[in-house]
């Protein structure tokens, strides 16, 4: 198992870098991974120097012994997705749920749609398989309340900190009803794509 962060590198800058650093550092402490912040910062600086222009998808991986690795790829311009609803199994280990690790079996699906939107046995909406959920309703933006039941994204937290996103839970049936009545708009938010529209297949 490894920890990882997937980040946007654009014009030589990592938006939300402090959020990514804080998250991987906290996860390393929880899971007893070695994490040397000086090595992390050195790698970040190297990536910035090697890619001062353009937009890239950067994935940095951390193993238990503190070794950092990375992958650089082109940044997709896809900004609209489809998603279906999927029940989260009850037997998921919490560390896999709330930390960004390479053990992500609970997020696998058959890709009939681009994404899946997870909900729990209490019918609380949680997150997409690649990012957090944002709902626009009556001119305001909402995301589910965190209760150690999904991965807190860096984009989500930055929007909350900026006062642009409020926390509110959505019940599955209420959500379906509002989708069918076109009373809400649904978005994927993550640090890579930032904000993308999602069409829900019911």
TrEMBL record:
Gene3D superfamilies assigned to the protein according to its UniProt record, in alphabetical order: 3.30.470.10, D-amino Acid Aminotransferase, subunit A, domain 2 (3.20.10.10)
Domain of life according to the entry: Bacteria
Entry keyword set: Aminotransferase, Transferase
Any Pfam family hit: Aminotran_4
Keyword Transferase: yes
Entry's Gene Ontology molecular function annotations: transaminase activity
UniProt keyword Transmembrane helix, yes or no: no
Name this protein carries in UniProt: Aminotransferase class IV
